Structure prediction request, 995 residues.
Amino acid sequence: MTESLLTSDRRSPDARRSWRPFTLGVIAAILVAIVLWNREEAPSVEAAPASHAVRAQRRQYVGAPPVIPHPPLTGQCVTCHTPKGTNRPPLGFAPANPHTKTPGMSEESRCRQCHAFRFTDDEFVASDFERLTLTRTQGSRAHSAAPPTIPHSLQMRNDCNACHSGPAARPEIVCKHPERARCTQCHVPEPKSDAVFGVSEPASDTK
Amino acid sequence: MTGQDSAGTDRRTFLVELGVAASAVTLASCGKEPELTQIAGDPNDPSLQWDKAPCRYCGTGCGVEVGVKDGKVAAVRGDKEASVNRGLLCVKGYHLPAMLYGRDRLKFPMKRKADGQGFEKISWDEALDLIAEKFQTTLKEHGPEAVAVYGSGQWTIFDGYAALKWVKGGMKSNNIDPNARLCMASAVMGFMTQFQSDEPMGCYDDFEAGDDFILWGNNMAEMHPVLFSRILEHKRKDGGVRIVDIATRWTPTSQYADVYIEIKPGSDLALANGILHLLIASGRIDKAFIEENVVFKRGIEDLDKIGYGCFGDQTEHYGFKDEARDSSLDEMREFLQDYTPAKVSEITGVSEAQIRLLADMYGDSSRGTVSLWCMGVNQHTRGTWMNNLITDLHLLTGKISRPGSNPFSLTGQPSACGTAREVGTLSNRLPADMVVMNPEHRATVEDIWNLPEGTINPKPGYHAVDMFRALSRGDIKAMWIQVTNPWVSLPNLTRFERKPNDGRFIVVSDIYPTPTTAVADLILPSAAWVEREGLFGNSERRTQQWNKLAEPPGEAKEDAWQIIQVAKRMGMENLFPWPEDNWHEPMFEEYRRFGFGHGKDLASYEQLKGSRGLRWPVVDGKETKYRYMAGEDPYVMKASGVHFYKAKGYGEKAAVWLRPYQPPAEVPDEEYPLWLSTGRVLEHWHTGSMTRRVKELHQAVPEAYVELSRSDAAELGIENGQRVRVSSRRGSVELKVKIDERGRPPRGSVFIPFFDELRLANVLTLDAMDCISKEPDYKKCAVRVEKV
Ligand code: SF4
Prediction:
C-alpha cells in the first residue's frame, strides 16, 4: 500500500482566504428570490425517494463526485462548507466539507478540481451512458442486535458525520448517535465495498 | 452541531428547495435533452468487474480502477495502489465512463459519396482495400514523399509502433509525425541538445523531495491537477516549501503560489539569462560540478538566418538547422553582461527585486529546486532555447539528477513520452532516440526489423506544420490521421481549408465526428481507451499497461489493428508476423529490443501487466527513479555524483548552452493592440471531442470564451458576459467575455481556450515555429477585440 497523499491535519485558519460578505449577501438575496419563484416545484423533505433521485442526478454514477447544485457564489467554497457546515441565513445550511479528513485531498479549497458547476446543456450532444445508481442504502447485520456494516466505499469519505449528521443530512441516513465519534469502531466496511484490483477482487484479465 | 429540532428541519427543507431551484434555474434551457438512462446497481454489485488502467487524458498518468458492467464501463475510482495519484483524480478522470458513450460514436467505416456530399457506410474489407490501393498507387506514381501519417501523443505504444514500422519500414517514407510535435517537441530538443538522450532525469518523487518549485509559464493547477495536489500536500506538511509562479496571466495556480511573477509574453529568455547573469556574477555556481560534468556550447544567433518559420521564403517550408560550436564559462560570463537586472527588468516587466529573488532561490545550495514547465515554454518560437536555459540554471548550480532538485518537463498527452518520444514517431526519429540521418541507427533498426540494408530512408520527412502545408499544396496526396483533430488544433487554421474531391485522399480514424472527420474521404471507427489493450508512457518515464475491459461499439477497431490490416493488404505482412489473436505481447517484446543496454530498458510485458507501471530504465526488474545519479541509475558506475553517460558526443558530459533573448514573431501594434495566448481548461481535454460529450464537463465549461482584463474591458466599454469579436491578421471569432474569473490576464493580454470546435481559437493563431524543434507558438500573436 502506498503512503497516503493526505493526512488529517488541516491548514491553520489564517491561511484560509477571506470572503466578501456584502457580495455574498446580494447573491443570496437573488437566490432567495429564485427559490420563492420556484417554490411549488421544489420537493419536500418528507419525499425521501425524491431526494434520493435528486442525489443520483448530481452524480455521473454511484461514487462519482457530485456536481455543484447551486450557481457560483462569491468567495471560497470552504467559507460556507466548513468542517461542520454553516448556517447561512437566508441562503440555508451549507453542508459540511466531507474531505477534511480525506487522504488524497491536498487543499481544502481546491474543490473544483473534482466538482463542477452546471451552467447549460446548450450544444450538448446526447449521450447513451447508463447511470449506475445506488440501490442499497443499508448495510447488513450479523445478527439482529449487531451494528450494521458500511455498504459503501470509504474512499474520499473519511468523515462520516459530514453526511450522516447535521441539518443537511438526508433523513434516511441520519445517524442517531453522532456523539459517538469513532464510527468504524463498531461499523465496518463490507469487504467488497473497497475492493481494489489485485487485492480482494481478481483482475478481469480473461476478457 | 444543531440537533433535529424544528428549526433544523426548516433549514433542511430550505436547503433542498434551494438546491433544486438553483439547478432548475441554471439548467433552464436543458429541457430538450433527455436525462441519462439509469441502471440499477451499486459498487458492491458482483456483476461489476474492476481492473486497473491509466487515465485516458493527460500526461500525469493517474491510475484509475475501472468498473465494468455487461461489457460497458459503468464507474471509475482513483486507484489507491497507483503511486502517481494515490487514489485521487481530477474532474476529467472521475467523469471518464460517459466519455465512451456519446450517442454519435462512430460505429462503422464510412466513405465520402462520389458527389463529395456526405458519407455512406461501407464494410471494413472495402475500407481497408481502398486505403491499401490509394497508398500503393500514390507510392508508385509520386514516391514515398507523397504519403503521410499524422499521429498522436494519445496513440498507445502499439498504435505508434505499428504506424512507425509501416511508414518507415514498409513504405520507406519518413512522413510520419505526431500532434506531439505541437506540444513537446521543444522539450525533446532541449534534452537531446543537452544530454543527447530524451526524457527527464527526475520523477514525481521530486514533488515530495523539493523545497522550491519554480513554475515557468505552467498553469499546473488546471493542467496537471493531481501533481499540483502532491506539491500542495507537501507544502502543507512542510511549511518551508515555496511555490513560484512565473506567468503571463493570473490562473488558479497563482492563487496557491508564494510568489507570483508576471512576465511579458515571450520575455522568459531574458529572465532566465538575467538569473544566470546574477548567479555567475556573484559566484553562486558549483564550480566543481561544472568542471566534472559540463561542457559549454553556442549555436547560431543571427535572427535573419533563423527567422520564425512563417514569413517570406519560410512560409511554405521551414528547415533551419542550428550549428553548435564550443564555448566556455568565460564566454558565457561575457555573453551575459547584457542581462543586468535593470535591462532584464525593462524587457520582462519583472521587478529587479523579483529577478534577484529567483537568483537567490536557484543559487541557494542548501535548498532543493525543481523547475517545472510545459506549453508556455515549449510552444515558443525559441522553445528549445528556453528549455536549454532552464536546464542551464540547474547544471550551473549542480541542482540536477538528485531527489528534489531537477529540471522537470511535464507533458500534456497520456503517451507523448511513451509513444511519440520513446517509440520515435517523428519524421526524423526511430525508436530509443535514434534518428534516420544516422547510418548506424538505420542499420540497427533494419537488423531488428529484419529488413534489407538500405530500407530506411535517410532523409527526414515533413514535420507536422510543413506536412499540412504540403497537403494544401498537393505535394502530399494520401494521408492517414489517427487519434487527433488537426482541423481544430493546427495554428493558423484557415491556411488548411480543404474542399472534397481535390485529388487528395484523407483517411481519419477517430471515435466521434469532428471537424477533421468532416474533411475526410474515409472515416474509420476506432476502439477507445479500455475498449482495447494498451500501453501509455507518462511524464516520469512510467510505462503503464491495461487490458481490454469493455466492448467497442458497432464495428469499431483499435488503431494499430487498422494499420496492420492495411500493411498486410499492401504485401507487407513480414512487418507484422504475429498471430491475429495474439500480437500485443510479441509486438511489445520486439519493440523492447531497441532499448536494451542503452539506458532505455523497458520492463517485460508480463511485469507491466502485474504492476501500476514502472519507470525506465528497468534493469533486472527494478525501476529507476533518478537517471544519471550514482546509486540510483544502474548505468552509473561512479560511487557518487552524477554521470551523463548518454552524451557521448560531449565526452559524457552535459551541455550548457548560451542562448540570447529574441522577440516573438508577431507583437501587438496599433491595429492589433493585444497579446493572445491560447490553452486548455481543467474540464476539457484538447479539442473537446471527448469531454464535450460528457454532460458534467460540458455543463461546467459549455463554450470557449475570451478572458479580458478589467481595464481593457472598461476602455472598450465591454462588460462581463457580453459577446465580442476577436480578430487577428488571419481570422476572427465571436466569443463571450470573461472578466476576473478563473484566469485573469493583465492589461494588454487576452486568453482563449482551444477546446471548442464551434469557436476556433486557432483561426487567430500564427504558424510561427520554434527554430529547432519546429513546434508552433500558440501563446503569442496580436489580436484586437471589438463589441458586436
Ligand atoms: S486528466 Fe490527468 S490529472 Fe486528471 S485524472 Fe486524468 S491523468 Fe489524472
Summary: Residues 14 and 588 of chain B are 59 Å apart (CA to CA).
